[in-house]
Amino acid sequence: MNRIQMKTPLVEMDGDEMTRVLWAWIKEMLIEPFVDLKTEYYDLGLKKRDETNDQITVDSANAAKKYGVAVKCATITPNAQRVEEYNLKEMWKSPNGTIRAILDGTVFRTPILVDGVRPTVRTWKKPITIARHAYGDVYKNTETKIPGAGKAELIFTGEDGSEIRKTVFDFKGPGVLQGMYNLDGSITSFAHSCFRYALSTRQDLWFSTKDTISKVYDHRFKDIFAELYEKEYREAFEKAGITYFYTLIDDAVARVVRSEGGFIWACKNYDRDVMSDMIATAFGSLAMMTSVLVSPSGQFEYEAAHGTVTRHYYRYLKGEETSTNPVATIFAWSGALRKRGELDGLTDLQDFAGKLEEATLETINSGVMTKDLALLYDGEARAVTSREFLSEIQKRIQMKA
Ligand code: NAP
Ligand code: MG
Fold it and tell me: Whose CA is nearest to atom 33 of ligand 1?
């Protein structure tokens, strides 16, 4: 059989533990038999990060910048226990954080829907994608206890010595106080990433804040989005038949629950922290959640939203066959291959990405799935090992070829 040819390499970021095992199997069983896979390989496994003093992570992010499309395996973010386990030189930073900072990107999370796992919210028929502005606000706050009566002020001193001073509160007794900030540049990058991803996936974009209460801070977010939309994106949105829609966060929540899904919801940092757990839980499973990092200039890095599934890995090391769900990692690959195909004008590569996704969903809809899904599945389900599951998918791709 003729394998599909690629033009530009995908940036491949390998990872850790059980997902690293699945990574190799997905390539071997579902991709390489069909695609003459071209990648520029970066090993982000913890051992290699330690050996290179984490330079490998920086290099992989720069490669993603250069080529435009990357696919990433889940990686360990070291903590004290991992430093010991891997005998690390340092407690290296989260690779996702490093890559996000270099690409200045926004993360979009989308659930993968299957027939037998119905969302808790009855009206949801299509996935809801959440975008998080992962900078500033309460995550970079400065806060203090107030011991007793006194005046709290907000003071900004300009480099030229000028001053802005506002009274926060005249305390009559003890309490608490918090200061936080954000940057026009960061909000603008966030907005670009959101508009671009909406265009890339041809879905409406919703954005919500609480600008009626936060008349300067949240209003700045609203204005930056609105100005950018008018200046750079309105025409493209109209051409694509999609809309940009701004509303208050509380109104957005009510509309989301009543909706059919099928749109992107951009949230401020804290809102997305809360809302994404609600959305993920209501859609079913973290193992069925994909994640894409999109830079403001339109570079894409695809991955699964879950971690390295450590507990399964330890069982695997003992020689046990595990039933770890590879679906989100498969969709990271299909997403990256489709995007690469779009950018390089390779329709057969785009078609293959579609077939890979269809074959995966058809396998589940036929009742064959990993254990985690079988537990949620509404209907007759056969729980199989990861390898059995992958080989069922492989058979179905072959039937489509
Ligand atoms: P996790 O790997 O997502 O796993 C948590 C639990 O969720 C698993 O023990 C498993 O439950 C279930 N689960 C998650 N994905 C699954 C899958 N594909 N198939 C079946 N079950 C799945 O999170 P964690 O245990 O908190 O973190 C493990 C490591 O991953 C950590 O070192 C962390 O730093 C890293 N991590 C990386 C990323 C990333 O690279 N993007 C994200 C999050 C965490 P059962 O054990 O009950 O079956
Ligand atoms: Mg959270």
Answer: 76
* Ligand 1 nearest atom to the CA of residue 95, by list position: 40
Separation of 309 CA from ligand 1 center, angstroms? 4
Distance CA(71)–CA(49), nearest Å, equals 17
Model confidence at 45: pLDDT above 90: yes
Closest CA to ligand 1's atom 12: 309
pLDDT class of 1 with cuts at 50, 70, 90: low
Q: Residue 324: CB within 6 Å of ligand 1?
A: yes
Give mean pLDDT, residues 164-172.
Answer: 97
Nearest CA to ligand 1 atom 44: 307
- Which pLDDT does position 140 carry in this prediction? 87
CA dist 8 to 37, 40, 147, 218, 394, Å?
10, 9, 61, 41, 25
Q: Angle at Cα 68 formed by Cα 66 and Cα 72, nearest 5°?
A: 105
Q: How many CB atoms lie within 10 A of CB 358?
A: 16
| 374 Cβ neighbours under 8 A, 6+ residues apart | 381, 382, 383
Show the DSSP H helices in 122-201 as ranges: 184-201
Query: What domains are there in the chain, each with its CATH number?
Result: 1-114+290-401 (3.40.718.10), 118-141+181-283 (3.40.718.10), 143-179 (no CATH)
d(CA 29, CA 239) in angstroms, rounded, equals: 39
Q: Given ligand 1 and candidates 306, 315, 370, which is best to mutate, with the most ligand atoms within 8 Å of its CB?
A: 306
Q: Which of 2-11, 102-111, 132-141 has the lowest mean pLDDT?
A: 132-141
Tell me the CA distances in angstroms from 375 to 89, 326, 367, one per residue in order: 41, 16, 12
pLDDT in tens, 239-278: 999 999 999 999 999 999 999 999 999 999 898 888 888 8
Best of 308, 369, 371, 387 for a ligand 1 pocket test (most atoms within 8 Å of beta carbon): 308
